[in-house]
Fold:
Amino acid sequence: MDHMILRPGELHIVMAELHGIGAYIENSRIDFCWTEADLYGPMTVKQITEGKHVKRGVEAHMVTLQALFMLYQEAFFQEHLDLLGRLAAAAENLDRSCADGSCEEIQQAHSEMVKVIES
Structure:
């Protein structure tokens, strides 16, 4: 027994992480949003916040992250309308290039899009 090293597996590490996230968001009402949006039932939400339902837990937190990021992005672009217009124009240019452009045109449009994003 002296030569054995116990190591938790990946599943147990993920479960512990999900439990930690669940404890952190416990009073934030995010769990209530999951129920109200009909994403999950109350028992599933309880299992998610306790870290006992890995697949649904990861899915719930990813959906929440995506929704919060969309709200953040919307607020950001309300403050920076000029940047929104430049990004939309660059995206349309890239879309046109992908539809009927040469490889060089696509690379050029992509470079322009990256420059706008980095600005």
Notes: The chain has a mean pLDDT of 90. Residues 54-79 form the longest helix (26 residues).
